[in-house]
Amino acid sequence: MPETLIIKIGGSTLGSHDTLEDLVALQREGKSLVVIHGGGATITQWLAIHNVPSRFVRGLRATDSETLDIVVAVLAGLINKDLVASLNALGGRAIGISGADASLLRCRLNDPDLGFVGEVESVNTDFLNELLANDRIPVIAPIGVLIEGDQTSKQLVNINADTAAGEIAAALGAHALVFLTDVPGILGATKQRIEHLSRDQAGVLKAEGVIAGGMIPKVEACLRANSAGVLASIIDGREPHNLLAIAKGDGIGTLVG
Ligand SMILES: Nc1ncnc2c1ncn2[C@@H]1O[C@H](COP(=O)(O)OP(=O)(O)OP(=O)(O)O)[C@@H](O)[C@H]1O
Ligand SMILES: [Mg+2]
Questions:
Q1: What CATH topology corresponds to 4-256?
Q2: What positions carry a catalytic annotation?
Q3: Do 223 and 202 meet the contact criterion of CB atoms below 8 Å apart?
Q4: 216 CA distance to ligand 2 centroid (A)?
Q5: Strand ranges (DSSP E) for 82-230?
Q6: Is any atom of ligand 1 closer than 6 Å to the C-beta of 254?
Q7: DSSP state of 75
Q8: Distance 161 CA to ligand 2 centre (A)
Q9: Is the CB of residue 62 below 6 angstroms from any atom belonging to ligand 1?
Q10: Nearest to residue 221, comparing CAs of 211, 212, 209, 233?
């Protein structure tokens, strides 16, 4: 089995053409790739169109049932299909799924305050490995299904894309997890890029509020994956061909753990 690389594409860098080119190039080199995407900005736009306010708690989107419908439509519909079609148009072999497909991501509710936000309890790695063995790039929309008692229910839930990526990387025992986002890496108190952030330092910077908002679930996902032996990094998805650069081993962004 070739080395597996898990890539989370942030909503902020979704349109970046060279990232998609890099993914196709890495697939041609024989790498096993799994993509998880976000879509925060697009979801916020669609919520606004429907007059549904956005509310965040510790970097996570509070999700009532009205919000959930729009989250599912935008993530598993528009964004997922756009991404898959773009990859395939470049010659990739991508297939779009959500965490509801094949009960890929089974969840419990995260926190009653957050509504339908799932915490991943199990990942259907057999299903992902089948897709990888068929030389597909699974492109995953971070929607899950709720477990009630010990049964998989039909209730869909919203999962933070970073959290989902960390859980998938850990469950697959991936070689590396890479977050593509809209900053050069994790920035310290004086806005300098931190090349290597230890678990202890991460705790301190979170407590000090230097790591905040959307960076919190990213750092937590990195630490989660890292504890399962995965190399976890946060890099700038706006810089051309940064994905190829990190796959080659260039020291860009922030290595966490
Ligand atoms: N210490 C920090 N270093 C760098 N960025 C930080 C830090 N603390 C908070 N941030 C914020 O985190 C943001 C990245 O997370 P954000 O959730 O906005 O993007 P994303 O996860 O790539 O996209 P999406 O949520 O749409 O998938 C940065 O733009 C920055 O504003
Ligand atoms: Mg985010």
A1: Carbamate kinase (3.40.1160)
A2: 8, 11, 40, 162, 218
A3: yes
A4: 9
A5: 94-98, 105-109, 118-123, 137-141, 143-148, 151-158, 176-181, 196-197
A6: no
A7: I
A8: 7
A9: no
A10: 233
56 vs 46, residue with greater confidence: 46
User: Model confidence over 94-140: pLDDT tens digits?
Assistant: 999 999 999 999 999 988 899 999 999 999 999 999 999 999 999 99
> How many angstroms separate the CA atoms of 134 and 128, rounded?
10
Q: Which of 14-23, 134-143, 186-195, 228-237 has the lowest mean pLDDT?
A: 14-23
Of the ranges 3-7, 16-20, 71-75, which one carries the lowest mean pLDDT score?
Answer: 16-20
CA separation for the pair 47, 35 (Å, rounded)? 25
**pLDDT surpassing 70 at residue 1:** no
Extract the tokens encoding 103.
């009960």
